[in-house]
Design a protein that fits this description.
This protein is of the alpha/beta class. It has 2 domains: about 1-105 and about 205-240, Periplasmic binding protein-like II (D-Maltodextrin-Binding Protein, domain 2, 3-Layer(aba) Sandwich); about 105-200, Periplasmic binding protein-like II (D-Maltodextrin-Binding Protein, domain 2). Helices cover about 35% and strands about 25% of the residues. It is built from 8 helices and 9 strands. Strands 3, 4, 5, 6, 7, 8 and 9 form a 7-stranded mixed β-sheet that branches. The two termini are about 20 Å apart.
Length: about 240
């Protein structure tokens, strides 16, 4: 029944909005499985494709280096950026306006086979080496790193981080859960890894430039319809990711 109702909503919404459809510029950066530049794929691409069907609007996607994307948004050259938690951008010149949340970004520990342990507080990492992506910061761990209680080992990317865990160069890493699940979905030997405790969880939304805030009511309604129908969960699941 849910799929039938959702399909009916798509047809009705597209008919109603055809006469007032607009084109919005969307900023992406390559970050599989959320945004996959090769082939113009990924979770956010598919969510926007569905939102386009519901609202009748067109979403014109361009890929940028992340730092440039932030500048383009400040300048009003980008209308929309998906997958943003408001607290991440509150210090930017133009923080933007936000839709209702559509997903989560979750940071988890991932362990090599046989290395899993239960973590009640970050201090349970004392004396251990934790793999991270270079440049990523985690406020709850800063004091532990600065004092040398926990040792930090950096990789240049999530892909390298997973490979280092598989090669036995470290016992545990901290990584975006969706990225870990996607890599485990693609690489059979990674399926022996153990997903551990959550160190951070953030509800993410569509970040809309203030000049385009009139889009928000339609966007909110469409996102809520997709959540009710299970469409968003199905898109995540296609990439091996659970919400």
């Amino acid at each position: 029944m849910g799929r039938l109702v959702f399909a009916t909503c798509l047809v009705f919404a597209a008919w109603c909005t055809d006469a007032r459809s607009d084109t919005f510029k969307v900023g992406f950066y390559n970050y599989p499985p959320m945004m996959i530049e090769s082939g113009q794929a990924g979770i956010y691409q598919e969510i926007l494709d569905e939102l386009s069907q519901i609202t009748g609007h067109r979403f014109q996607i361009r890929y940028f280096p992340y730092a440039r994307l932030a500048r383009e948004f400040d300048l009003g050259q980008i209308d929309l950026e998906p997958g943003v938690f408001p607290g991440w951008v509150k210090q930017q010149r133009v923080p933007g306006k936000f839709s209702v949340p559509f997903g989560k970004v979750v940071d988890v520990l991932v362990f090599a086979p046989g290395k899993h342990f239960r973590m009640n507080t970050p201090r349970d990492l004392s004396g251990r080496t934790l793999g991270l992506v270079r440049g990523y910061t985690y406020p709850d761990l800063r004091e532990l790193f600065d004092s040398g209680i926990v040792h930090r080992s950096d990789a240049v990317s999530e892909t390298q981080l997973m490979a280092m865990l598989a090669a036995g160069r470290m016992d545990q890493i901290l990584i975006n859960k969706a990225v870990a699940q996607y890599n485990m979905f693609l690489v059979p030997k990674y399926r022996e890894f153990v997903l551990g405790d959550v160190l951070g969880s953030f509800d993410v939304s569509m970040r809309v430039h203030p000049s385009k805030k009139a889009l928000l009511p339609e966007l909110d309604e469409a996102i809520l319809a997709m959540k009710r129908s299970g469409a968003i969960a199905r898109i995540y699941a296609k990439y091996g990711v659970s919400l």
